Amino acid sequence: MYLPGIGPRKADVLKREAGISSFEDMLHYFPFKYIDRRKINKISDIRSFTEQARTDAGMPYIQLKGKIVNFKTVGEGYKRRMTATFADDTGTVDLVWFKNIKAVSNAYKVETEYILFGKPALFNGRINIAHPELETENRFFGGEAGIQGQYTTTEAMKNAFLHSRAIQKIIISILEQMKEPVAETLTTEVIRSAHTISLDEAIRNIHFPTSATALDRAEYRLKFEELFFLQLNILQVTKFSEKRIGGFRFTTVGHCFNTFYRKNLPFELTDAQKRVVREIRADMNSGRQMNRLLQGDVGSGKTLVALLSALIAVDSGYQTAIMAPTEILSQQHYSTVTQLLKGIGVNVCLLTGSTKKKERETLLTALAAGEIHILIGTHALIESNVVFSRLGLVIIDEQHRFGVEQRSRLRDKNETPPHVLVMTATPIPRTLAMTFYGDLDVSIIDQLPPGRKPVKTIHISSSNRENLCRSVRRQLQQGRQIYIVYPMIEESSKMDLKNLTDGFETTKKTYPEYRVSMIHGKMKPAEKNGEMQRFVSGETQILVATTVIEVGVNVPNATVMMIENAERFGLSQLHQLRGRTGRGASQSFCILLTDGEPSENARRRIEIMTETNDGFLIAEEDLKMNGPGDIDGTQQRGIPFNLKIAKLSHDGQILNIARDIATGILEHDPTLTKEENAPLNSHLQKMKKQKKAGWFMIS
Ligand code: ADP
Ligand code: MG
User: Fold this and answer.
1) Same domain for 213 and 285?
2) Whose CB among 8, 205, 254, 350 lies 3.0–4.6 Å from 218's, allowing a Cys bridge?
3) C-alpha 524 to ligand 2 mean position (Å)
4) pLDDT tier at 626 (50, 70, 90 boundaries)?
């Protein structure tokens, strides 16, 4: 890449820090925000910003117009810095440079009028602005509309003089040198359908908007483009894939299903459960492969739906795999299912990482011979040596723990892909479901079994916990069980483990008349299961644990979920944990304990938890606060290219438009081989090749 002022060193930094290695990359390095450069602040106004700074992340960027009164170099060695006094007609402010001192003192002169741009900060009671941008008025650039883009720059970029202003200058020079317009990536047809502008116009306006409206249009075009290719890709590999065409037909609802339904079902299904079972049944009898997402808040009774679906498969002569994310959960499903199926004559087996070699061999032989009807297990089920004789249905519980890849590996176990039912208690907002699962049909259990009382959620500061013990003991005296959960994060696992074991000891001392279990992720599976079983069977009354109990565990007698350091948990996690209680007929409580002064975000999370029990609302809030990342860390990996400008959390409307247009194209040309679609196909292939690691994912 040749550009005036960009030597090999800068080029290297751009590549390493921002993944920019061509003009094109540079032009696609979009501002992360815009500043109205027509507005000039007065130095006397800055004080009011410092007030704001106490509550905010810092003071906002400001623009001043004035002169440098004097320069001074102070300090020695690494403490050496240069300061200057900058004045306008309302007062003075300190400027400071820690780096590039020589260059700065050569570049700027006293008594010349500058437009200054920078971020004030409070230092020793005085306001200063570090490394401000200074321009003489005639060189001041804000585009015709005075709207100036600000570019993200890393520390290393700044050190190489690649600050926002420098990036902007590089982009100006690229645009000036270009003889042709920026090459179009969409077809005229798509541009017309989306009512948008050309890529060339969009790129120019995203960097140098000619007006606020032009900026809006440019943003729309660029977001649309990203989401359009994303949809084109996901729809092509899912909905319009040839693999989807064939599917097993489960025509019979026979002996197993009916006997179970009439004789063994311990309670009436809720209307929502009935509806969902009907939807699944119809799907599995349609001749097309089912790909269905079953969403239902914690405790809504998804397990039963899974079991009924499995029985439909069994009645039609097919095998079912039920996959759960943890050993504990697989075990629990296994015992629930075997219990429920007593006397029905269905062969259910369990396969996990800790299944003994001998037992595993026998099991695998029986599986291949078709003697096992339902196989329940963990990731162990997707290993290649696990061979089914007639795998007809795959049920994946708590899907957010499974990556896209793992799912497709299970699906690929057959010539004809088995039906897939993915169950989740973490409602996935529609925009995300559409992006990551393409054509996944969605069933929703929007009703809890009768007699449930909503869990009461209470926030208590750790320092006020005395009264809490009394209330908790009262629950224990009534024969109830309680959970106490501690955070456990890889990076600080030593400290966390200590807190957990300290908590375990304290709990034993606080409630000496009760028995306490402890489980955490570092324990051996067998040990963990043993402890869990002790709690499930009621042998212990208190379970001190990390989030290993988050998913799926079902102990209806547990009525208290106490969460220590609740400020360190994400919203979805808190909701999942809370859902471990409220599963029986008695009133349950979720107690969120926080230490010290929680951050703004943590406070908001706790507020939401105390305000609502609605899992969908919580998922939406989570998405708003954290973007898609927090909902599933693996989801970023699930999309074929990084989004530079579109945000799944905010651009749902554009996503819908993009999806409709992409669907329209694929309906006529599922493989994108028609001549008119060739440009779309070649750009899509190019984007998929370009996926870059890391850096862009930060935003
Ligand atoms: P989740 O949807 O969180 O997986 P589960 O399937 O574990 O929920 O069910 C939660 C609890 O509700 C279980 O104890 C289960 O036996 C019970 N349950 C499920 N369906 C019904 C129903 N229709 N009526 C009463 N209880 C039910
Ligand atoms: Mg469950």
Assistant:
1) no
2) 205
3) 23
4) low
